[in-house]
Amino acid sequence: MPTTKYDVYGIGNALVDIVTEVDHDFFEKNEVEKGLMTLVDEKRQQHLMKAIDMKRSKMSGGGSAGNTVVAINQFGGKSFYSCLVAKDELGKFFLDDLKRNGVDTNLTHENCPEGHTGRCLVMTSPDAERTMNTFLGVSSFLSPEHLDEAAIKESSYIYLEGYLVASPKGLEALKEAKKIAERNKVGTALTFSDPSMVKYFSSQMEEIVGASVDLLFCNEEEAMIFTGTNDMGTAREKLKQVAKRFAITLGANGALIYDGDTFIQIEPYKVRAIDTNGAGDMFSGAFMYGITHGHSYAEAGKLASLASSRVVSQFGPRLEPQQMKKLLGDLIV
User: Fold this and answer.
1) Which residues lie below 8 Å from residue 73, measured CB to CB, with a gap of 6+?
2) 65, 91, 152, 240: which could join 85 in a potential S-S bond, CB 3.0 to 4.6 Å?
3) What is the pLDDT of residues 141-167, one digit of tens each?
4) d(CA 280, CA 277)
5) Smallest Cα–Cα separation from 15: which of 120, 111, 102?
6) Higher pLDDT, 272 or 180
7) Phi, psi angles (nearest 5°) of residue 70
8) How far apart are CA 190 and CA 65, in angstroms?
9) In this structure, are residues 183 and 217 in contact, taking their beta carbons and an 8 Å threshold?
10) CB of 285 within 8 A of CB of 78?
11) Which residues pair with 9 in a beta bridge?
């Protein structure tokens, strides 16, 4: 069982997700690059929101690392989240969502800045692929001053969201959080977040990885882009040089875990995918819950594979707390 106050201290964007379904021709018609996360300004996002059916859309708390820390808490763990929202209705919605899920934060609605809370338009196509257009709002100003050093010191791991490398201030915050963690012997975990982050911000991502991270999460495309190879066998060997341990998600083929000594193949759970939004976030959350609560890397990988299979079989990036408890029961059985 964990001996620290927090299992995981997350740092990432605070976004309210607007999840909607679109047809295949929507992307070409609206000049949207399918399958990627694209940062857009408020005007562009407003244009897209007018093009979708808002009545059929669902609003929920989001953000990559935000989804992960919520998952940890829903499994029964304890997490802390450093983020930034505005003093507006969406900001209150986001903070209330964290509180409802038991996630601690050093942010209150009263000390939030004026402006607009970030939002992410998640467009799911009939092939279950997610395409995200994100307006960061005040989240783009997340900086080292928004960290809580005391909470980092009281955590088993920090969890760094790769999306933040796109922001100069966010990059500084990631680097500072990693320094604090390393000084205090707190584990460092990093998610690459999205292929576009590794492709277009490779030098910034390398700054965060530095000499090494304790635990890395990525998918196979991100692994190959980061290591500059088209071969997964080569990619996984190269990742050993920058990560002490890592988890590579393989979509319908499960996942590959490296526990610092051995490669572990995690079998997939066959489901009909409806929406892949949040699958990686859920995988990370379930896995980190597992390793901070006495489970082996193989057991944590199995739980993560099971949890992510459940989340892709429904719309939205999160499950309900009762679903999470059932997953733990299913794993034990």
Assistant:
1) 79, 101, 102, 103
2) 91
3) 999 999 999 999 999 999 999 999 999
4) 8
5) 120
6) 180
7) -65, -40
8) 10
9) no
10) no
11) 80, 158
At 102, which amino acid appears? G
Taking the mean position of all CA atoms in its chain, how far away is CA 277?
10
pLDDT by residue (tens digit) across 127-141? 888 898 999 999 999
**Cβ(284)–Cβ(162) below 8 Å:** no
Report in angstroms the alpha-carbon separations of 302 from 133, 211, 286, 307: 31, 29, 9, 9
The residue whose two tokens read 């955590």 is 155
Contacts of residue 103, Cβ cutoff 8 Å, sequence gap at least 6: 69, 70, 73, 79, 80, 81
User: Mean pLDDT, to the nearest integer, of 92-103?
Assistant: 95
* Alpha helix ranges (H) inside the chain: 25-29, 42-51, 64-75, 89-100, 149-153, 168-183, 195-200, 202-209, 220-227, 232-239, 279-291, 297-312, 321-332
pLDDT, tens digit, for every residue of 277-319?
678 999 999 999 999 999 999 999 999 999 988 887 776 667 7
**Residue 249 amino acid letter:** T
Q: Which CATH architecture has domain 6-332?
A: 3-Layer(aba) Sandwich (3.40)
**Euclidean distance between CA atoms 326 and 324, whole angstroms:** 5
Q: What phi and psi values does residue 82 have, to the nearest 5 degrees?
A: -100, 125
pLDDT higher than threshold 80 for residue 241? yes
For residue 28, what are its two tokens? 């070409």
pLDDT at 53 over 90: no
Q: What's the pLDDT band for 331 if we cut at 50, 70, 90?
A: low
CA distance 191 to 285: 11
The Cα–Cα gap between 182 and 184 comes to 5
Edge-first strand listing for the sheet containing 6-11: 79-82, 6-11, 155-161, 187-191, 215-219, 246-249, 255-258, 263-266
The letter for the amino acid at 13 is: N
Query: Which tokens is 25 given?
Result: 């021709």
* Residue 178 DSSP symbol: H
Domain definitions of the chain by residue range = 6-332
- The answer to whether the beta carbons of residues 63 and 92 sit under 8 Å apart is no
